[in-house]
Design goal:
The complex is a heterodimer of chains A (110) and B (116). Helices cover 0% and strands 57% of the residues of chain A. With 110 residues, chain A is mainly beta. In chain A, the strands form two sheets. In chain A, strands 2, 4, 5, 9, 10 and 11 form a six-stranded mixed β-sheet that branches. A five-stranded antiparallel β-sheet of chain A has the order 1-3-8-7-6, with no helix packed on it. In chain A, β6 and β7 form a beta hairpin. Chain A starts with a strand and ends with a strand. By secondary structure, chain B is mostly beta strands. Chain B contains no helices and eleven strands. Chain B is globular. The chains are: A mainly beta (110), B mainly beta (116). At the A-B interface, β4, β5, β9 and β10 of A face β4, β5, β9 and β10 of B.
């Protein structure tokens, strides 16, 4: 059974702190995606990771992929309030289907 | 910019009604998807389509059907709405692409459906 697990599910962190969100998946894949969802809004693509060892960075967010460990991480550096949102990872398998994690709800506290 | 639009942002229907949710994309994408999103369960795939008149079941197709008569339009149909179909419904589209290509999915704004 295909499983995509994110942790933590809820994250409350202070401004200026660092933290990492983890995404584990159960079956071999070489494509992993990170999305952001603001309350009441749809999903916005953040990163696309296509190979083992891939690292992408934008602003205070950095995503990495280890296909051997079946693990992706989303690292937040010096969090600011604007980063408060729900973050989803999604794993691409054969064909064009994605399997989404349950999401991590991030709240950044001043 | 890719644009994916959904026919309604909010819908309230009664149990037993037939419900149509429409999705239109303007980027000539081959693939289109319908998901439902529920708290604590993430996004679950209902149906997807990789070409006109083609459809494939996702993880939770029961109680739903779909229609794709034109490339840009993908409709989700609830034949007889039930209260457990109250949810947020998200449509997405992507290029078919080759192996290794990005194939990012682009999402519509969502339809929040309440079945009474």
């Amino acid at each position: 059974e295909l499983k995509v697990e994110q942790n933590p599910l809820f994250l409350s962190m202070q401004e200026g702190k660092n933290y990492t969100i983890y995404c584990n998946y159960s079956t071999t894949s070489d494509r992993l995606y990170w999305y952001r969802q603001d309350p009441g809004k749809s999903l916005e693509s953040l990163f696309v990771l296509l190979s083992n060892g891939a690292v992408k960075q934008e602003g205070r967010l950095m995503a990495s992929l280890d296909t051997k460990a079946r693990l992706s991480t989303l690292h937040i550096t010096a969090a600011v309030h604007d980063l408060s949102a729900t973050y989803f990872c999604a794993v691409g398998f054969t064909g064009n289907q994605f399997y989404f994690g349950t999401g991590t709800s991030l709240t950044v506290i001043p | 910019d890719v644009k994916v639009t959904q026919s309604s942002r909010y819908l309230v229907k009664r149990t037993g009604e037939k419900v149509f949710l429409e999705c239109v994309q303007d980027m000539d994408h081959e693939n289109m998807f319908w998901y439902r999103q529920d708290p604590g369960l993430g996004l679950r795939l209902i149906y997807f389509s990789y070409d006109v008149k083609m459809k494939e079941k996702g993880d939770i197709p029961e109680g739903y059907s779909v229609s794709r008569e034109k490339k840009e339009r993908f409709s989700l149909i609830l034949e007889s709405a039930s209260t457990n179909q109250t949810s947020m419904y998200l449509c997405a589209s992507s290029f078919l692409g080759l192996i290794g290509q990005r194939k990012t999915q682009y999402f519509g704004p969502g339809t929040r459906l309440l079945v009474l």
